Amino acid sequence: MIERVCFLLKVRPERLAEYKERHKAVWPEMLTALRETGWRNYSLFLRDDGLLVGYLETPDFAAALRGMAGREINERWQREMAPFFEALDGRRPDEGMLALEEVFHLE
């Protein structure tokens, strides 16, 4: 079984251009870590007011998060990306994702 996960975060409007630029060249080690920990079909969508919508598929989202949390590359990425986001209240971006409930899927 595959979990489909959709989540929200809020990018600071004044950091939108830089946020998009950073994602044109995600570190290869980060991409490898995501794949190794079960992140599949992972996409980010950004609205011009900073609303970030993420989508991924994984066998186990909690396990995928735990797998990434234990990686040094993820620690560095999260530390560098945290200033881009609003309302994290001291959490890392991967801890501040608001997962949405799936209510319909056409299949």
Strand content bin = 15-25%
* Low-confidence residue ranges: none
| CATH architectural designation | 2-Layer Sandwich
CATH class: Alpha Beta
Plain-language structure description:
- It is a single chain.
- The protein is an alpha+beta fold and 107 residues long.
- The protein has a single domain, classed as Alpha-Beta Plaits (2-Layer Sandwich), CATH 3.30.70.
- Helix content is 33%, strand content 23%.
- It contains four helices and four strands; from the N terminus they run βααββααβ.
- The chain has helices at residues 16-22, 28-36, 61-69, 72-81, and strands spanning 3-10, 40-46, 51-58, 98-99.
- Strands 2-3-1-4 form a four-stranded antiparallel β-sheet, with no helix packed on it.
- The longest helix is centred in the last third of the chain and has 10 residues, at 72-81.
Summarize it:
The protein is an alpha+beta fold and 107 residues long.
